[in-house]
Amino acid sequence: MKTTQNFLITIQGATSEKDVLERFTSQLERLSFSIQNMHFLNFQSSLFLLMHFELAESSDKKSLTKVLDKVAKHYKLELLICQLPESSITSPENRYILTLLSRQLPPELLTKLFRHLRKNQLCVTEVRPLDADDLHVFEIKIHADQPIERQQLMKELLELKSEYQLDLALQADDLFRRNKRLIFLDADMTFIQCEMINDMSRFAGKEAEVAEITQRAMDGKIQFNEALQQRVALLKCSPQRFGTLDFEYSVHPRC
C-alpha cells in the first residue's frame, strides 16, 4: 500500500521579478506531487506564497528542499518547508464558511470572534479576504466535530454584531454553496446608511411600531422571519405611493 507525504511550503521576501510563480512550479514538475491548496500575494514588490501539496512515496523532503531552495536563493527569498503529520490532513465531515463583513476591523473584534469559536469547539482552518472595495470582507473556514446549530451560533454572536456594526453569515461548505447562482442578503445599515423598512413605514404612518419590531429582532427577542412578517403587515400604503419613494428619500451607499 502506497503512502503519501503532505508538505506546507512558505516562500516570502521582496522582489520585483514577474516570473517567480512559474519558476517555482517548473521546479516542482520534476517531482511526483499534486497541489492541494495555494495562496499567493504580491503587494508593492513584497511576495508571499503558501502551498500545500502531496508528494508520492518515492519523493522525500530532501529532494523537495533541493529543487525549491535553488529558486529561492536566486530571488533572495525565504523558504520554509514543513511536513504535515497525518492527523492534520484528515477531512472533517462538518465544514462551514463564516463570512464576516465590516467597515472596520479592529484586533479586539477578531480576538472576541476567534475566542468564541474556540470555546464552542469550532476550529478555524483558513481565513481569506474577498474583494469588497472599502469594506472588509473575509471568508473564515470552520471545521466542527458535530453539526453546528446555526441559529444558536448567530444568536450568540448578536452582541458582537451590534458592538462592531458588522454582518456575519454562516453556510455549510458544500457543493451547493460553491455553485450558488442567486444570493439574498440584508443590505440595510451595511451597504446603505438606513433601515429601509423603517423609512418606508413613515409613508404608512407606522414608523414607531415598525422601529419597535426591528429593535426587538436586533435584540434577539423575536426571529427575523417573524419580525419581517409583522413589519410588512403594518405597511398598508398603496403601490403607487411607494413607487415615488426613491424620488422622495435619498439612499446613500456605504461602499
Can you offer a commentary on this structure?
This protein is of the alpha+beta class. The protein has 3 domains: 5-89, ACT domain (Alpha-Beta Plaits); 94-178, ACT domain (Alpha-Beta Plaits); 196-248, Phosphoserine phosphatase, domain 2 (DNA polymerase, domain 1), CATH 1.10.150. The protein is built from 11 helices and 8 strands. The protein has helices spanning 20-28, 61-75, 107-119, 150-156, 158-164, 175-178, 196-204, 207-218, 224-234, 239-242, 245-248; strands at 5-14, 33-43, 46-55, 78-84, 94-102, 122-129, 136-144, 166-172. The strands form 2 sheets. It has a 4-stranded antiparallel β-sheet, covered by helices on one side. The chain is elongated and about 75 Å long. 10% of the residues are buried.
Q: Could you give a short description of this structure?
A:
The protein is α+β, with helices and mostly antiparallel strands.
Rg computed from alpha carbons, rounded to a whole number of angstroms: 25 Å
Strands, count: 8
Return the string of H and E elements: EHEEHEEHEEHHEHHHHHH
Distance between the termini: 55 Å
Strand order, main sheet: write it out: 2-3-1-4
Tell me about the largest β-sheet.
4 strands, antiparallel
Q: What structural class do helix, strand and pairing data support? A: alpha+beta
What is CATH's topology name of the largest domain?
Answer: Alpha-Beta Plaits
Helix content: 25-40%
Strand fraction: 25-35%
What would CATH call the class of the largest domain?
A: Alpha Beta
- The CATH architecture assignment of the largest domain turns out to be 2-Layer Sandwich
Low-pLDDT residue intervals, each spanning 5 or more residues: 247-255
Fourth-level CATH superfamily of the largest domain: ACT domain
Shape: elongated
Number of helices: 11
Number of domains: 3
Average predicted confidence as pLDDT: 80
